[in-house]
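Quick one:
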Amino acid sequence: MDMDTRHLENEAKALSGEVFGAMINLSGRRRFTSQRIVLYAVLAAQGQDDAVAIAREALGLFRGAHKALLTDADGLPGVFCAELREAYFGKLAGDREIAAFAEQADRTLAAISHGSGASASLLAELVRLTTPTLAILNQITAVYEEQAKLHARLMKKQLRGVITDIEKINKQARMVAFNARVVAARAGQAGREFAVVAGVLSGITDEIDQMVTTALAAAA
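Output:
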């Protein structure tokens, strides 16, 4: 395993499944609200009441989700891996294109609200941007989903390692319990209390065996 791969794995290990779920949900919210913005901008241009307000609300959610995903705050890690850095700031230029879409939506809604003659051309450009922007959002969401899968695999690997260590300790405990029973039997009456302790230890190892079996099933 090379240094970059180890670094990425260490980054993923620091995050929880709950955090990955939150990031995937926020990325999905950007996809949903981007389409909602365009739909209500079109309806606003056709004169539907409250369409501009609904579109602006969707735009606020769109920008809020994007900011949350890029910012290392409020329990979210920001752009935490090389794949996301490439998606947002590399060849895909996700951050720039998403910001351009939001700015175009803002200008379009302002023009529609003021009855500007430029609203038709602005709306046409917003509609044109919809498909490429959605494609970028889909690609970035796929990165979050792939990172979540990597995290799950790493957690299972780590769990299996812990289980292996527990099994080794449990085998040693069984040997201690067995030896304790032998010593207690040889000691006769004097070893009665020792036999009780050995019995308790043996019972504990049985419980650990059951827990290990359950944990292995979860890590499969």
